[in-house]
């Protein structure tokens, strides 16, 4: 007997990512698009869905998730802007809804997930690390969610290895010249038309450097991860942060 397709709704459907997700879901044999909504649309149409994919805006995503969780809908979230406070609120809401799953991934591209994993491995051996993230100039937030997540993974790996961040001698600097500091990792953000989504993680050691780089050249690069997220979240209650927890790495 063939299983019925997973009923999927998309929030942010007229945006760059949302429009790409709509096409990907329509092309997936095991999924059925039941709602494609954008700002101002009536969320009632989402009640036909089992899973809702959100690619909207950091200022909108928490209200969307409050609504989805209250309506017992699973969520796959690519929208960025998640602080520890936001994640704690979601864990609290999900505690009252034990069957609902929310998967938040700062980056759904396989190569980006692998780059973050490799960076965490390298961080145990190199005390000095910096991140450069490069994106299109219509991106709302900086630094990117991916870069912030990478920095946190580097910080966690350092803490586990008992390694302090490597020193540098810079004491005189123009504001912003050393980028933002995310858990003691410097993150530099570049915004240019023509770019899609790119990240370099640079490590320095005695007489050597190591650079890990990932490039998303097209938004289709995120789609296998999004579709996998939809398939996974229906049997993964609670909050999951990072596609690395879903992939068999
Ligand atoms: N996780 C990933 O792999 C990944 C990949 C690319 C982009 N992103 C993130 O996804 C988000 C969207 O990126 P984008 O480039 O598609 O932006 P975009 O501006 O092209 O699209 C966002 C869309 O969301 C709509 N929107 C805003 N508020 C809404 C609401 N309350 N309900 C429904 N729709 C609403 C907007 O009208 C717009 O059409 C950003 O946070 C971006 O960083 C994540
Ligand atoms: O285009 C964007 O915006 C992207 N946002 C995510 C981030 O902030 O890390 C992922 C890559 C593309």
UniProtKB/TrEMBL annotation:
Residues 111-247 form the Dihydrodipicolinate reductase C-terminal domain. It catalyses: (S)-2,3,4,5-tetrahydrodipicolinate + NADP(+) + H2O = (2S,4S)-4-hydroxy-2,3,4,5-tetrahydrodipicolinate + NADPH + H(+); (S)-2,3,4,5-tetrahydrodipicolinate + NAD(+) + H2O = (2S,4S)-4-hydroxy-2,3,4,5-tetrahydrodipicolinate + NADH + H(+). Residues 6-108 form the Dihydrodipicolinate reductase N-terminal domain. GO terms for molecular function: 4-hydroxy-tetrahydrodipicolinate reductase; NAD binding; NADP binding; oxidoreductase activity, acting on CH or CH2 groups, NAD or NADP as acceptor. NAD(+) binds at residues 12-17, 38, 78-80, 105-108. The active site is at residues 135, 139. It comes from the Bacteria. Signal peptide: none annotated. InterPro entries: DapB_C, DapB_N, DapB_N_CS, DHDPR_bac, NAD(P)-bd_dom_sf. CDD domains: DHDPR_N (cd02274). Keywords: Amino-acid biosynthesis, Cytoplasm, Diaminopimelate biosynthesis, Lysine biosynthesis, NAD, NADP, Oxidoreductase. Its EC number is 1.17.1.8. Coiled coil: none annotated. Pathway: Amino-acid biosynthesis; L-lysine biosynthesis via DAP pathway; (S)-tetrahydrodipicolinate from L-aspartate: step 4/4. (S)-2,3,4,5-tetrahydrodipicolinate binds at residues 136, 145-146. One of its GO terms (cellular component) is cytosol. GO terms for biological process: diaminopimelate biosynthetic process; lysine biosynthetic process via diaminopimelate. It is found in: Cytoplasm. Belongs to the DapB family. Catalyzes the conversion of 4-hydroxy-tetrahydrodipicolinate (HTPA) to tetrahydrodipicolinate. Homotetramer. PANTHER family: 4-HYDROXY-TETRAHYDRODIPICOLINATE REDUCTASE 1, CHLOROPLASTIC-RELATED, DIHYDRODIPICOLINATE REDUCTASE. This is 4-hydroxy-tetrahydrodipicolinate reductase. It comes from Amycolatopsis echigonensis.
